[in-house]
Design goal:
Helices cover 29% and strands 29% of the residues. By secondary structure, the protein is of the alpha+beta class.
Length: 704
């Protein structure tokens, strides 16, 4: 409903502007009618237009009232205090100022029409030129234009100074028009017989006005475009620094590259570079993997070929399996990816230098170069890896793979472990792994099955439906759930970058995992590898908020938090790197002006995430898992819900928290990678940390 309300306000505001603009033109040109019959007819039509815009205005106000009654103030504050008055107040001036004058004008023209050979009297021209008749129509059009501007460029966060500039322009334009019509009114009042200005004079006036407006618009357009150009080189620590309500200490500022101030008793450590925050440098690794990034034409199960960027010549890249606590070493080799590559371990909380983000924790690995990552796999669960250099294109082209961390001690009973990694390839070929056809799997009845669902697609909320047996959701984003409930007729929606593990005991009948709602897209499991595809049943969506059984956590909603941050996700029309587009913003800004969340090690951090926009945003914080405290004011009461990629839908508000226990400079961005590439990226930065790396067109590093 929220998304519908936003769209109503946006598109009906445009319709409202068109209607009011027509009315303003009709009002201004009323004076130019040279016959009584025409003057009477035009006055009657203008009376109609004085009421007709009330229809779209009512739709706009209705949507705003619904928001005000149903949602928190952050969703409607600007709409109630700015857009609603800009819509309704000018219309009221039409009804109370213009309409009475129009009724009187129409009455006079009607009386004169009854007289044979009657001409327009000066009194009629005098009334048609009245600013009190014309200005309310033009003010309503200007109000509609200003209201539409605030729909396209919402003032988020709500700051009166930023709001005052468009409002001042609205007031000045109204005053200017009043002055112009007052001059014309005085000229008409002095004439015994009104003479219509010649066409060329009216045209010249119109052209002059349009030239001034077009010139001003061009100047502002060019200025905004030039100011949006990204620097050739920029430090990832740039931007606005948000300290979460805490006072700023000397070494919390990212611009301090020396030692800590003497008066700061909270810490005495020197500044440390992210390059020093590495995994174990010594010791023989328990497992070593080599990932070679290379371009290759690969063949899907149907025989279709895909020109892909691959790790080790396959799509997806090789599945990396390891045991909890093992020391892992991964050598990344770039054979021929000109854009450069990295390897980011999505959801696995590794030391900062091993996180694999070009420009933040390392330089991109260019063709002919290698890079080695070393870390301990501390978490058990389902994760994935992908390149974080030109990540939007790299992931789309195939630079990703599954990463599975198994328990240190194996279970006694053998489990059928199936990784379901879905992706849509260039040419619109949808595949699970490298299979773009129905997969059939033979599983003996009584076998425990674990299916690891990983959604790699950009800007896709992937739907998974298990048919033929009850099941449990065992884990979300690599974290096991406590005493999960048994589910039937329930589908799972996994956000971009998210992971769900589901478990069940294989029955004697076929079980079908459908992916994406297309009947033949998925995995059919049966005791003999055969069976017919079932019909897709009616299902309800899985909701983790109250699923499973609660248990103790290191902190909860009642804890005392050291930092409190608010992130408002929204859309606005604007320039980004000289391109005009609908931007996806964080607190009203795009990178590099997005907020830098400043913390120190050991802080308990709470973040309120509000999605004011009209599309979903899977927010992904590197290096940490957050505990979901509440959604839309409703507390999380089921199994503790830990997430690293949290889908925040339009109109939703999440409260999440985490412990700042992994020092470094960490990306926090929307994992709809097209959004991140358009600037929906920010960072979490620990006190005392610096980075020697940079991004920009003058560098090799382009993380998004």
């Amino acid at each position: 409903m929220y998304s519908i309300s936003v769209l109503i306000i946006l598109f009906v505001s445009l319709l409202f502007l068109i209607f009011t603009w027509i009315g303003s033109v009709k009002a201004s040109r009323l004076l130019y009618n040279q016959s009584l019959e025409r003057m009477h007819r035009k006055a009657s039509k203008l009376l109609f237009w004085s009421w007709f815009p009330a229809i779209p205005a009512a739709a706009i106000l209705g949507a705003i009232v619904w928001m005000q009654q149903s949602m928190d103030s952050v969703f409607w504050q600007d709409r109630v205090f700015i857009q609603a008055p800009l819509v309704i107040l000018p219309i009221l001036t039409i009804w109370f100022l213009s309409v009475p004058k129009l009724i009187k004008l129409r009455s006079l023209t009607k009386q004169s029409l009854g007289e044979p050979g009657a001409e327009i009297e000066p009194t009629i021209y005098y009334r048609a030129a009245s600013p009190g008749l014309i200005i309310p129509f033009q003010m309503t059009a200007l109000g509609a234009l200003t209201a539409l501007y605030f729909s396209l460029v919402p003032p988020v966060p709500f700051r009166w100074l930023e709001i005052s500039i468009p409002l001042a322009a609205f007031v000045l334009a109204t005053v200017g028009l009043w002055w112009r019509h007052q001059i014309r009114f005085k000229q008409v009042s002095k004439m015994e017989t009104y003479v219509l200005p010649t066409l060329w004079k009216r045209a010249l006036t119109m052209v002059s006005v349009l030239a001034v407006v077009a010139g001003s618009a061009y100047y502002l357009f060019t200025l905004a475009m030039n100011n949006s150009q990204l620097p050739a080189e920029i430090d990832m620590t740039s931007g606005t620094h948000d300290y979460g309500g805490q006072a700023v200490t000397a070494n919390m500022s990212p611009h301090n590259h020396g030692t800590v101030g003497m008066n700061d008793s909270s810490s005495s450590a020197k500044m440390v570079s992210v390059a020093e925050l590495t995994g174990p440098r010594e010791g023989t690794p328990d497992r070593h993997f080599t990932l070679t990034a290379q371009k290759k034409t690969v063949t899907l199960s149907s025989g279709k070929t895909v020109d892909a960027w691959t790790y080790n010549g396959q799509i997806p890249g090789p599945e990396l399996r390891m045991k909890a606590g093992e020391l892992i070493e991964v050598t990344l080799v770039n054979e021929d990816i000109e854009q450069g590559v990295t390897a980011h371990w999505h959801g696995l909380d590794v030391p900062n230098a091993e996180d694999g983000v070009a420009g933040a924790t390392q330089n991109a690995v260019m063709p002919g170069e290698t890079y080695t990552y070393r870390f301990r796999a501390e978490q058990v669960g389902t994760f994935w890896y992908h390149s974080h250099q030109d990540s939007q294109e790299a992931v789309s082209m195939g630079l990703f793979g599954a990463l599975i961390v198994e328990p240190k001690v194996e279970t006694l009973q053998q489990v059928k472990d199936i990784t379901v990694m879905s992706h849509r390839w260039k040419g619109n070929s949808f595949a699970i792994g490298a299979s773009d056809q129905l997969e059939r799997v033979t599983i003996a009845p009584g076998t425990p099955v674990r299916m690891r669902l990983i959604n790699t697609d950009d800007w896709v909320q992937q739907k998974y439906t298990l048919i033929g047996t009850h099941f449990e959701v065992a884990a979300i984003d690599g974290t096991e759930l406590n005493k999960p409930d048994v589910l039937t007729n329930t589908h799972l929606v996994v956000t971009t970058g998210g992971r769900y593990d589901i478990t069940f005991i294989m029955p004697e009948r076929p079980v079908y995992l459908n992916v994406g709602g297309i009947r033949s897209s998925g995995i059919l499991m049966s005791p003999d590898g055969k069976g017919e595809l079932p019909e897709l049943p009616q299902t309800v969506a899985f909701d983790p908020l109250q699923y499973g059984t609660s248990t103790s956590t290191p902190f909860d909603a009642n804890s005392r938090f050291d930092r409190n941050f608010t992130l408002i996700l929204d859309n606005k029309l604007g320039f980004y790197n000289r391109n005009l587009d609908f931007l996806y913003t964080l607190n009203g800004e795009v990178f590099p002006n997005t907020p830098m969340l400043m913390v120190k090690e050991g802080d308990l951090v709470k973040t309120t995430i509000v999605n004011r926009g009209n599309v979903e945003h899977p927010m992904h914080l590197h290096g940490h898992h957050v505990l979901v405290l509440s959604r839309n004011g409703k507390p999380s009461t089921g199994s503790p819900w830990w997430s690293d990629t949290l889908a925040v839908l339009p109109g939703e508000t999440y409260e999440v928290a985490f412990v700042a226990n992994n020092p470094g400079l960490w990306m926090d961005h929307c994992h709809n990678l097209v959004h991140a590439a358009a600037g929906m990226t920010m960072h979490l930065m620990y006190e005392g940390v610096t980075t020697p790396f940079s991004v920009g067109s003058g560098t090799i590093n382009h993380p998004e």
